[in-house]
Amino acid sequence: MHHHHHHMNVKKFPEGFLWGVATASYQIEGSPLADGAGMSIWHTFSHTPGNVKNGDTGDVACDHYNRWKEDIEIIEKLGVKAYRFSISWPRILPEGTGRVNQKGLDFYNRIIDTLLEKGITPFVTIFHWDLPFALQLKGGLLNREIADWFAEYSRVLFENFGDRVKNWITFNEPLCSAIPGYGSGTFAPGRQSTSEPWTVGHNILVAHGRAVKVFRETVKDGKIGIVLNGDFTYPWDAADPADKEAAERRLEFFTAWFADPIYLGDYPASMRKQLGDRLPTFTPEERALVHGSNDFYGMNHYTSNYIRHRSSPASADDTVGNVDVLFTNKQGNCIGPETAMPWLRPCAAGFRDFLVWISKRYGYPPIYVTENGAAFDDVVSEDGRVHDQNRIDYLKAYIGAMVTAVELDGVNVKGYFVWSLLDNFEWAEGYSKRFGIVYVDYSTQKRIVKDSGYWYSNVVKNNGLED
Ligand code: GBH
């Protein structure tokens, strides 16, 4: 018998808690140019040799463009209540603006209608990185006109789908568009700059604000927010005030970069201090668009790190807040065991602490955990199943940490989405990394629900973890 403090036994969620799974268009759909779609920057980037492991592209992916019905039936069979997916901008507007492609609208209309028929709540991400290549030719996210282009595209979606879709996400992880996209160059469009990431981040915030304004005029009974990624941080030396400050500063450079302007009206002081004029300033009009623009906080969270202060001044290309990002602390303790992704170490305590950090800083906003999960080297066993106990352990620990944050810390989590429904195109890693709770055999396109998929199905059924 276990003798916990009685609160610790509470593992159920409030009635109506939304359990979901998540995907993104370029990662699963395939057929990127079908039915009149324009090219996206991930199409051109992945077709440029050297950018993606093994030369993989999204040309076929999970063939979800043709198998969407089967995939929705899997969601239904697992009893999952919500599905977060993204819309491919160049399917809807092949040139980025202007002419609307009806066949693109039709594809997503079929998905939305099928989800609703089955009682699955759609969460639509407007932008999950597949920018129309036509807009990249005009400067893409670096061009401040992105706010006009994005508002126009968003309006098309709200007018066509807003009668049925009530939960919307503007941008997925703007940090990834800004830093891997424009700083290190590991993601499309593959630029390497020390100044551009900060302009890109600013332009995305303004574009988000513009879309929210359109949304509030057109979809009066809906909710909208941005999705931000964030790894939690602990000081390398918990007794050193400089490391404690560095751990805080890293969170500011990672997440408060976007969340502070939205919830508090301006960039964190630590960023202004280090970046000076390289960090844009908000005009009063921009600030009015951005401040107060979230109905909910969308949280993508996977891992945590130990953070050590750097005593040397930050170099111009430093994007992490002048810190070292580490897996072990001063005592030699490890943040968590390895997974298939070098950056991802399971640390469920960091999830609870991050939920609390966000809640305290921004006044306990409603939160949807829009992505959480892990990649492991899954294999199909002789019995035809995928016994991914490591993924079950990960999800169980993280969901448990979330329960604790809700029950003991008063964090306002409304829903949770596993990344991902399917193994899929993991960006620069191609098909080499598997995040799905459903295995995809890429040679046959056969889907196999992994043990974690069945396990998660039970979590949904029980509305929480079993004791
Ligand atoms: C999310 O981003 C995405 O939203 C999703 O599409 C993706 O499939 C999923 O997570 C799993 O990766 O060593 O500094 O280059 C992932 C966020 C972005 C975190 C890149 C790690 C690289 C860190 N990731 N980042 S770095």
Give an overview of the whole structure.
This protein is an alpha/beta fold. The protein has one domain (about 10-465): TIM Barrel. It is built from 15 helices and 13 strands. The chain has helices spanning about 25-30, 40-45, 65-80, 90, 100-115, 135, 145-160, 175-180, 195-220, 240-265, 270-275, 285-290, 350-360, 390-410, 450-460, and strands spanning about 20, 80-85, 120-125, 165-170, 225-230, 230-235, 295-300, 305-310, 325, 365-370, 415-420, 440, 445-450. It has an eight-stranded parallel barrel with strand order 1-2-3-4-5-7-10-11, surrounded by five helices. Strands 6-8-9 form a three-stranded mixed β-sheet. Helix 3 packs parallel to helix 5 (about 100-115). The longest helix has 23 residues, at about 195-220. The protein is globular. It binds ligand GBH. Ligand GBH binds near residues 176 and 186.
Keywords:
eight-stranded parallel beta barrel; 467 residues; three-stranded mixed sheet; single chain; alpha/beta; disordered N terminus; 15 helices; binds ligand GBH; TIM Barrel
